[in-house]
């Protein structure tokens, strides 16, 4: 199939898998000479009406000449793409380059005529919209800048495809035909349309997996035990509301059921449709199962089987083949090597996982790339004792295993719309598409909290089984970028659960001011210290003494919540001797009733060995309504013997989370405070300012000229100054001084006083090593300094000395920008010097940076007080510093060929600043997977 054609080799990079509007998948690929029979078969299945709309006349069949024309392409001036499912065409699109008057043409003509044909059975699935994105990307690659299409007025569906695409276009009507012309350059609106379609399609694809109407478990053993049999039992015992089937080709033909579930030897033998297949057979048998599922119309797979990329290079090849095979039938995959999925909705009640007990229904969504971590998360959220106590439920759970297809990005798309999920918790070991994850995380975090813990942070490579694009950014930088996107980034799964409990149960704090009250002075002081360590602003603790009653707690909490200077309350409690469970229940009710009176402020409890209080505080059995009381008893989740009975809290009551340590409670509160502030800031993100003195066209000409000399190069000092100057960033002039006489001549040119600097790589920007001499007032001092440097560090050719005019004294800072192939363009800021490098005290933002983000960037480093008058020093001109940050951001955003910029040092004085040294690296920009057409990743 993938053969060369008239002029160009087969463009394999145009092949892509796409998710359609209904959540199914299709393969987009170029049409070749080998597709003649597929094209004819496809055309025969198109209705006469659709054929009429395509050719403007009755056209019952394609002639041999038509078939040749539609299958022979040069992949430059004539291109055809097909959307396929199961190897068969479901839609086609083609363009033909045209010149003046609409006649066939070649480059440099930059206009093409485009036409679509979609099989009637697949219309309304978004196939044409997806094909338009891909054919437009192909056309841009081949130098075509504009499409023209002629459509009959009655063909409203196709007119809508073009009109809704978001491109700049014009429309005319002549001779009974609507003519549409539109530019192919992506616009803000076309990208917004593309992202919206991507969101709907990917969310729907996950919804089909998590809300199936029927499930087949393939690989259910005939004997008790085993993975498949266990999952079958878990689905049945959870009270799954749909149709359930057990499948094993080794079943006797006369066997009709297994454990009360209909049993079949093959998915093909199931009478009705199957929405989801859970595959638990050895890896070598999975392809056969996928074929059966695809031919039966199964919509999605959860592959529990291991032996894929988790087992080495050979397994990685099996994994790629598995994904290709499943997608060819329009199916998506969770796994392989997955732990399973859970949906606790009363309308679904699906536990298609290895978890023996279904978690209680609730408002927390869980995603884990590790099955072991998934077990730990479910366990911690499910049990009352050990760690964070209390009952908090789960809405959905996905364990992605090797994440060969469905990823955390897909699940985020689903959670964003899911009314059953209020908080999203994710354990990630790798991020396959950081740009997209950041974009989706920012949108999700604006609507509901997203808490992430990242494993394998320091290994430098993705875990075995994960095939992802590498990033050169340190983990600290990635974490900073996630926080910029509103992600609550935590370090451990304990912190993940702690933060999730608070965010699921309590409102967001309006600020960082914390009241502390309780019956233990020592516990109150520990809480106070923890608040200071986390950057909160605690009030002095209120000690109610050990004699405090439940009424005393109620009164104190009511006063604290009514205080306008308090944003949150931490209640500390130790056991009261002799009161037992009755005292715990009274105290819990007192705290709940006080908190309910002021529902806008969060309340947390720190307890010491108070299991009874923790249970009483979370008296409701879940954070969501229980299953309908009328559900059959045998269909409800089975309750473990150790689960004590609970009393339901009043409707609408916020459950109060309880923590066994002050540090854990305060850390969770600090995360909530930071997230609440991000939500407030996100409501007004600022703008990217325009500067009238920026010469974007002149910079582009300079960059083009430099890149004509080579694919990647670091600019010289003069070239760097010239390029930065086009964006209003002016570098302090420095002159080379290879000899003492040259140094004196340079000083005369610049004017005394001057600085003498060694610019050798091992001494550059290292004033602490003594390679810099400042404030040299005359020739004598300059020659003496030159002699000292050469005596200490070696010959001038090794030192590379320069002479530079003195700049006003200030605070030395560093500004950097770099384009990472995975994360995108990143702007970084910190103070210059070895101490900053040692401590890693740099702040980072994604480019383009807004004015508000530049302001926060300057203030977010730990050493920022040095810029604002620390210990009596004069504050420096941070406004000028922010402007430089914004100008560098604009340069890199406008010209992605600028792959690295470093300004070091930037000396910020009381008025103005001086850029003393700069470097710029140019290279062809890395390919951006977020600007092209929608595609599924090919891991």
Concise synopsis of the structure shown:
By secondary structure, the chain is α/β, with parallel strands linked by helices.
Q: If helices are DSSP runs of H or I spanning 4 or more residues, what is the number of helices?
A: 27
- Tell me the major beta sheet: 8 strands, mixed
Distance between the terminal alpha carbons, to the nearest Å?
Answer: 23 Å
The average pLDDT value, as a whole number, equals 88
Side by side, the strands of the main sheet go 1-2-3-4-5-6-8-7
Instruction: Work out the helicity level.
Output: 25-40%
Total DSSP E strands:
39
- Beta-strand residue fraction: 15-25%
Secondary-structure class: alpha/beta
| Radius of gyration over C-alpha positions, nearest whole angstrom | 33 Å
Low-confidence stretches: 1-6, 384-390, 620-652
Shape: flat
Give a description of the structure:
- It is built from 27 helices and 39 strands.
- The protein is an alpha/beta fold and 939 residues long.
- It is flat, with a radius of gyration of 33 Å.
- It starts with 15 loop residues before the first strand and ends in a 17-residue tail after the last strand.
SSE diagram, text form:
Elements: E1 16-19, E2 25-30, H1 36-44, H2 48-55, H3 64-71, E3 78-85, E4 88-98, E5 111-118, H4 127-141, E6 146-151, H5 156-163, E7 169-174, E8 177-183, H6 188-210, E9 214-218, H7 227-237, E10 243-247, E11 257-258, E12 261-264, E13 276-279, H8 286-296, E14 300-303, H9 313-328, E15 332-334, E16 340-343, E17 350-353, E18 361-368, H10 371-382, E19 394-399, H11 408-417, E20 423-428, H12 434-445, E21 450-454, H13 475-484, E22 488-490, H14 493-505, E23 513-518, H15 521-533, E24 537-538, E25 542-543, H16 550-562, E26 568-573, H17 580-597, E27 603-607, H18 611-617, E28 658-659, H19 662-682, H20 696-707, E29 713-714, H21 717-725, E30 734-736, H22 740-750, E31 754-758, E32 772-776, H23 779-793, H24 796-799, E33 801-805, E34 811-820, E35 824-831, H25 834-839, E36 842-846, H26 851-859, H27 878-894, E37 898-908, E38 913-915, E39 918-922
Parallel strand pairs: 5-6, 9-10, 9-13, 10-12, 13-14, 14-15, 18-19, 18-20, 20-21, 21-22, 23-24, 23-25, 23-26, 26-27, 27-28
Antiparallel strand pairs: 1-2, 2-3, 3-4, 4-5, 6-8, 7-8, 11-12, 16-17, 16-19, 29-39, 30-33, 31-32, 31-33, 34-35, 34-37, 35-36, 37-38, 37-39
Helix pairs in contact: 6-11, 8-9, 10-14, 11-12, 14-19, 15-19, 16-17, 17-18, 22-23, 26-27
């Amino acid at each position: 199939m993938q053969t060369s054609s008239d002029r160009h080799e087969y463009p394999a990079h145009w092949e892509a898998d796409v998710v359609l509007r209904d959540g199914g998948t299709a393969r987009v690929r170029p049409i070749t000479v080998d597709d003649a029979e597929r094209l004819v078969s496809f055309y025969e299945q198109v209705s006469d009406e659709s054929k009429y709309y395509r050719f403007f006349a009755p056209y019952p069949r394609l002639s041999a000449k038509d078939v040749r024309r539609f299958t022979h392409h040069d992949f430059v001036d004539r291109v055809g793409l097909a959307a396929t499912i199961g190897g068969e065409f479901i839609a086609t699109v083609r363009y033909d380059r045209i010149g003046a008057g609409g006649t066939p043409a070649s480059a440099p003509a930059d206009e093409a005529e485009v036409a679509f044909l979609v099989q009637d059975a697949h219309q309304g699935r978004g196939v044409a919209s997806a094909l338009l994105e891909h054919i437009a990307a192909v056309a841009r690659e081949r130098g075509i800048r504009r499409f023209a299409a002629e459509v009959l007025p009655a063909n409203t569906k196709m007119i809508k495809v073009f009109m809704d695409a978001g491109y700049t276009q014009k429309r005319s009507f002549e001779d009974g035909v609507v003519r549409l012309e539109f530019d192919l350059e992506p616009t803000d609106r076309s990208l917004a349309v593309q992202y919206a379609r991507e969101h709907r399609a990917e969310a729907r694809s996950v919804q089909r997996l998590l809300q199936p109407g029927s499930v087949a478990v393939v690989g259910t053993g005939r004997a008790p035990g085993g993975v498949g049999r266990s999952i079958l039992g878990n689905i049945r015992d959870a009270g799954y509301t749909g149709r359930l089937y057990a499948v094993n080709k080794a079943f006797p033909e006369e066997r009709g059921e297994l454990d009360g579930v209909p049993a079949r030897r093959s998915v093909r033998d199931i009478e009705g449709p199957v929405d989801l297949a859970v595959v638990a057979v050895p890896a070598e048998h999975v392809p056969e199962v996928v074929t059966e599922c695809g031919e039966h119309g199964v919509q999605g797979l959860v592959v529990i089987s291991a032996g894929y990329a988790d087992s080495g290079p050979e397994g990685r090849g099996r994994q790629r083949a598995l994904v290709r095979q499943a997608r060819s039938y329009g199916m998506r995959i969770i796994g392989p090597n997955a732990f399973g999925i859970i949906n606790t909705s009363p309308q679904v009640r699906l536990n298609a996982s290895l978890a023996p007990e279904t978690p209680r229904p609730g408002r927390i969504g869980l995603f884990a790339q590790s099955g072991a971590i998934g077990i730990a998360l479910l366990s911690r959220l499910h049990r009352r004792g050990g760690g964070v106590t209390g009952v908090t439920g789960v809405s959905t759970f996905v364990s992605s295993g090797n994440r060969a297809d469905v990823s955390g990005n897909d699940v985020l798309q689903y959670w964003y719309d899911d009314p059953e999920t209020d908080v999203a918790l994710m354990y990630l070991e790798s991020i396959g598409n950081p740009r997209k994850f950041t974009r989706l995380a920012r949108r999700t975090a604006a609507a509901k909290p997203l808490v992430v813990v990242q494993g394998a942070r320091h290994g430098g490579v993705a875990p075995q089984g994960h095939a992802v694009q590498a990033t050169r950014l340190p983990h600290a930088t990635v974490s900073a970028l996630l926080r910029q996107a509103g992600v609550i980034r935590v370090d451990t799964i304990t912190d993940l659960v702690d933060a999730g409990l608070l965010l699921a149960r309590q409102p967001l704090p309006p600020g960082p001011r914390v009241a502390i009250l309780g019956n233990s002075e020592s516990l109150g002081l520990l809480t106070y210290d923890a608040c200071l360590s986390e950057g909160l602003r605690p009030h002095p603790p209120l000690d109610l003494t050990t004699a405090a009653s439940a009424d005393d707690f109620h009164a104190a909490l009511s006063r604290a919540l009514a205080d306008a200077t308090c944003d949150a309350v931490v209640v500390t409690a130790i056991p009261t001797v002799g009161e037992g469970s009755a005292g715990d229940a009274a105290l819990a009710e007192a705290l709940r009733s006080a908190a309910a009176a002021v529902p806008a402020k969060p309340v947390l409890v720190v307890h010491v060995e108070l299991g009874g209080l923790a249970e009483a505080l979370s008296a409701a059995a879940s954070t969501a309504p229980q299953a309908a009381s009328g559900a059959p008893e045998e269909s409800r989740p089975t309750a473990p013997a150790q689960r004590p009975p609970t009393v339901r809290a009043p409707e609408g009551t916020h459950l109060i989370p309880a923590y066994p340590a002050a540090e854990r409670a305060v850390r969770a509160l600090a995360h909530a405070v930071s997230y609440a502030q991000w939500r407030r800031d996100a409501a007004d993100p600022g703008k990217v300012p325009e500067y009238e003195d920026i010469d974007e066209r002149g910079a582009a000409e300079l960059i083009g000229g430099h890149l004509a000399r080579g694919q990647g190069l670091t600019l010289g000092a003069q070239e760097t100054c010239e390029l930065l100057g086009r964006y209003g960033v002016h570098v302090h002039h420095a002159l080379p001084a290879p000899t003492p006489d040259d140094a004196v001549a340079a000083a005369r040119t610049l004017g005394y006083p001057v600085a003498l600097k060694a610019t050798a790589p091992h001494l550059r920007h290292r004033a602490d090593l003594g390679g810099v001499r400042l404030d040299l007032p005359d020739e004598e001092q300059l020659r003496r300094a030159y002699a000292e440097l050469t005596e200490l560090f070696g010959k001038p050719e090794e030192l590379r000395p320069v002479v530079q005019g003195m700049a006003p004294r200030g605070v030395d800072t560093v500004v950097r920008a770099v384009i990472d192939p995975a994360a995108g363009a990143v702007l970084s800021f910190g103070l210059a010097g070895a101490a900053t490098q040692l401590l890693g005290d740099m702040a980072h933002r994604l480019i383009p940076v807004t004015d508000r983000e530049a302001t926060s960037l300057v203030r977010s480093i730990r050493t920022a007080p040095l810029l604002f008058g620390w210990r009596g020093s004069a504050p420096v001109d941070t406004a000028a510093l922010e402007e430089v940050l914004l100008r560098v951001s604009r340069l890199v955003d406008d010209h992605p060929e600028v792959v690295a910029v470093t300004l070091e040092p930037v000396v910020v004085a009381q008025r103005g600043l001086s850029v003393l040294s700069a470097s710029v690296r140019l290279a062809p920009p890395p390919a951006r997977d977020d600007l092209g057409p929608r595609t599924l990743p090919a891991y």
